[in-house]
Amino acid sequence: PLKLLQPKTVPKKLRTSPKNPREPQIPRSLIKEIFRHFAKMPVTRDAFKIVEKCSERYFKQLSNDLEAYTHHAGRKTVEAADLEVLMRRQGLVTDKMPLNVLIERFLPLEYRKLLIPVAVSGNKVIPCK
């Protein structure tokens, strides 16, 4: 007697096409909030798209520069000194406008506490190095 052949069920293949890894992006809401804070006026969608593209390019260039400074110094970790050198080359940090003044002027208190050492009671300095 002949047995009837049953069709084999083929499992569904997982997507095997190579995906391009996506670069991390700054949230659009953060860019919009920062731009509105400094522009102090409403922004059209077309203008915001340009601002978003410019900020992405700026931060990409910033990270490439920091990577180059770190590589030049023979390290694998970006340090605060690398960022200060970069900001000095951009003209943001000068002898009259040190990095601590920029931090105090533009960052909220919770970030200032993390970046600027503060002496507290008991001869303790926060943040510890």
Give short descriptive properties of this protein.
129 residues, two-stranded antiparallel sheet, mainly alpha, Histone, subunit A, 5 helices
Order of helices and strands: HHHHHEE
Q: Helix/strand/pairing class, anyone?
A: mainly alpha
What is the overall shape?
elongated
The side-by-side strand order for the widest beta sheet comes to 1-2
Report, as a whole number of angstroms, the end-to-end distance. 84 Å
How many individual β-strands? 2
> What CATH first level of the domain at 44-113 would be assigned?
Mainly Alpha
Name of the CATH homologous superfamily of the domain at 44-113 = Histone, subunit A
The CATH architecture assignment of the domain at 44-113 turns out to be: Orthogonal Bundle
GO molecular function, one term: protein heterodimerization activity
Domain CENP-T/Histone H4 histone fold: 23-117
Organism: Vidua chalybeata
Pfam families: CENP-T_C (PF15511)
Structural overview:
By secondary structure, the chain is mostly helical. The chain has a domain of 70 residues: Orthogonal Bundle (Histone, subunit A), CATH 1.10.20. It has five helices and two strands, in the order αααααββ. A hairpin with a 3-residue loop joins strand 1 and strand 2. Helix 1 packs across helix 2. The radius of gyration is 25 Å and the shape is elongated. The protein starts with 27 loop residues before the first helix and ends with a strand. The model has no long low-confidence stretch (mean pLDDT 81). Belongs to the CENP-T/CNN1 family. InterPro entries: CENP-T, CENP-T/H4_C, Histone-fold. Keywords: Chromosome, Nucleus. It comes from Vidua chalybeata.
